[in-house]
Amino acid sequence: NIVAFNYINDPEVFTNIAKLKFKTIENFVEERYGAKIIFENEDEIFASIGKKAGIRNGGRGLLNVMETVIINPLSEFIFERSNMLRNRQIMIKPLFPDSFERCEVEFELK
User: Fold this and answer.
1) Are 51 and 11 in contact (CB under 8 A)?
2) Could you tell me which of 34, 39, 102, 30 has the C-alpha nearest to residue 65?
3) Helix, strand, coil percentages for the chain (3-state, nearest 5)
4) CA 82 to each of CA 68, 79, 96: distance values in angstroms, whole numbers, following the listed order
5) Could you give the angle at the alpha carbon of 66 between the alpha carbons of 63 and 72, nearest 5°?
6) Where are the alpha helices (DSSP H) in 34-104?
7) Can you say how many angstroms the Cα of residue 90 is from the centroid of all Cα atoms in its chain?
8) What's residue 45's pLDDT?
9) Chain-centre distance of CA 11, in angstroms?
10) So what's the pLDDT on residue 86?
11) Are 62 and 49 within 8 A, CB to CB?
């Protein structure tokens, strides 16, 4: 069976998919480590991830970019600080706030 899909042309759809997929990670981090993930400029971060993924790569490309930009670096950040996370916040913010096209983030423990 072959199932054909149209390209996702609406950038807001990419942003919403990215947020929805990341919500499971936020919930896991809160349950497992007792830390809440917060964002500085959440919409812009996810919009830049959607832009970087591009419409030709669709949802799968979006997830690949999310892994590269946020998920893998966040995992490393958490691993290195796992004993300090309880009742804290992990702030995700753009590394270059004036250039969201660069699509890089940094983490701060609050």
Assistant:
1) yes
2) 102
3) 60, 15, 30
4) 21, 5, 26
5) 115
6) 42-53, 58-66, 72-80
7) 13
8) 85
9) 15
10) 95
11) yes
CA angle 67-70-76, nearest 5°? 90
Which amino acid would we find at residue 95?
A: L
Using CA atoms, how far apart are residues 12 and 31, in angstroms rounded to an integer?
29
pLDDT along the chain (110 residues), means of 10: 63 79 93 94 83 70 85 94 93 77 84
CA neighbours within 13 Å on the CB side: how many for 1? 1
Whole-model pTM?
0.79
Distance of alpha carbon 101 from alpha carbon 29, whole angstroms: 27
Q: How many other CB atoms sit within 10 Å of the CB of residue 72?
A: 11
Length of the chain: 110
Type of residue numbered 60: R
The token pair that represents 15 in the structure block: 């942003």
Structure tokens at 106: 């940094």
8 Å CB contact between 75 and 109 = no
Q: For residue 26, how many other CB atoms are within 10 A of its CB? A: 17
